[in-house]
Amino acid sequence: MVKTFHVRESTISQMQYIRMDELTKLISKVGFLSTTILGMLFVCLTVCFVKRDFGSYRNLLIVFSFLGFLFSASEYMIHPMIHSYNSGFVFFTEPHLSLVSNEIMKIGLVFFCGIYGSTICFISVQFLYRYWALFDAPKLIWFEGWMMSAWLIYSFGIGATWSIGIHYFLENDNFTLNYFENGVYDHYGWKLSAIPSFTFVIYTERGAIRWRNLACTIEMTMIIGLQYSIICFCGRKMSVGMKEKISMLSETSKRLHTQFFKALILQIVVPTILLFFPMIIIIYLPVFNLKFSFPTGILFSAFAIYPSIDIAIILYIVSDYRIAIKLLLKSIKSVLLSSSYFPHELSLPTCTPQTPLPRGTARI
């Protein structure tokens, strides 16, 4: 009787988790499609329709839109999942999604983490550019020509550091596999050792700290803390000194800087809610060793929709892009009208043997 009740309870639990997983997949799909569409639109507008020269910031915007596409695409294709349990979490993906080996899929999980690290890093790079543009313009030379590649190396280097930390510090061992084995099987119906996964448990059975896993938390904290500190520092400085600085600019430049500043304010709030806060919850919950079991991977849904929201912010706030959208729609309308116009009657000259042709005209 007890065994039957346990099986029934496990089945109900699996159904609840399946529904929740289907919801995250739907959000992920919406995020991927919206990011793809808005990203293509944004690059098209930036390259072909926006007439104002944004300088090197134009290149930053294009690179960031491409990075956002990679981030959203990797989340959609790999479908990373996290289940938090007491003093740890398991980071995994569905086995039946994989047409390749578990090791390849584990590399996919690591790649997703690396893109996340590169994304939050590149957000801070954009803030640094806007700060220098207002308060120390000569330093913008560091964003010109080949020196732009240094920022790409920096961002992808941060992403690589994050990936290496996940791969090295969260590799499965016997203790973590046993710790999560029953929970993963009861909730998802999978055997943990047979699926692509990484595991994190911060305390041993006796309460001692597992320093290898804790090192991963420390590494993530340092990366997030550094990038978020740059964002907050530059955002704070710009908010305080914006009025004084833009008062010395022309009306056109003043309007543009004000618009980008509004965009950057939202670009502080949105990633805080959708990127930084969910990750902080995931990595710090195990420290408190709460007695609970929950699929915190649903927070990854916020990751999926972030890139499209970030692009939408710029398209909506910066007037140059609103004007460019009108120009694009006007161009599309003119093309459609010209292609759909067919005259009802065509009066063409008919050449027959009885009708002499003008001199120099060849007969067909």
UniProtKB/TrEMBL annotation:
<feature type="transmembrane region" description="Helical">
    <location>
        <begin position="150"/>
        <end position="170"/>
    </location>
</feature>
<feature type="transmembrane region" description="Helical">
    <location>
        <begin position="30"/>
        <end position="50"/>
    </location>
</feature>
<feature type="transmembrane region" description="Helical">
    <location>
        <begin position="57"/>
        <end position="78"/>
    </location>
</feature>
<keyword id="KW-0472">Membrane</keyword>
<dbReference type="Pfam" id="PF10326">
    <property type="entry name" value="7TM_GPCR_Str"/>
</dbReference>
<keyword id="KW-0812">Transmembrane</keyword>
<keyword id="KW-1133">Transmembrane helix</keyword>
<keyword id="KW-0675">Receptor</keyword>
<feature type="transmembrane region" description="Helical">
    <location>
        <begin position="260"/>
        <end position="285"/>
    </location>
</feature>
<dbReference type="InterPro" id="IPR019428">
    <property type="entry name" value="7TM_GPCR_serpentine_rcpt_Str"/>
</dbReference>
<feature type="transmembrane region" description="Helical">
    <location>
        <begin position="297"/>
        <end position="318"/>
    </location>
</feature>
<feature type="transmembrane region" description="Helical">
    <location>
        <begin position="107"/>
        <end position="129"/>
    </location>
</feature>
<protein>
    <submittedName>
        <fullName>Seven TM Receptor</fullName>
    </submittedName>
</protein>
